[in-house]
Design goal:
- The chain is α+β, with helices and mostly antiparallel strands.
- The protein is 28% helix and 34% strand.
- Strands 2-3-1-4 form a 4-stranded antiparallel sheet, with helices on one face.
- Strand 2 and strand 3 form a beta hairpin.
- The longest helix has 12 residues.
- The radius of gyration is 11 Å and the shape is globular.
């Protein structure tokens, strides 16, 4: 599955690295590509992952998933 997620608060490569680190910890996530310009993370996974899981992964950061 491929999912495009818009993330509020990312401004630099350090921000992108944090998002990648948090999303890589989610079971089933295989690949993450962050586009800072578009403020998006493209996540590839083995199966469908509920958006709530991504929201929870970012809960202790300054970043938020935009619906």
């Amino acid at each position: 599955m491929k999912k495009e997620l818009t993330i509020e608060g990312m401004k630099c490569e350090g921000c992108a690295s944090t998002v990648v680190e948090k999303f890589q910890a989610i079971e089933g996530v295989e690949r993450i590509v962050v586009d800072l310009e578009k403020k998006q993370a493209i996540v590839e996974s083995q199966n469908e992952i509920d958006e709530k899981v991504f929201i929870q992964a970012l809960s202790d950061t300054n970043y938020k998933l935009v619906k």
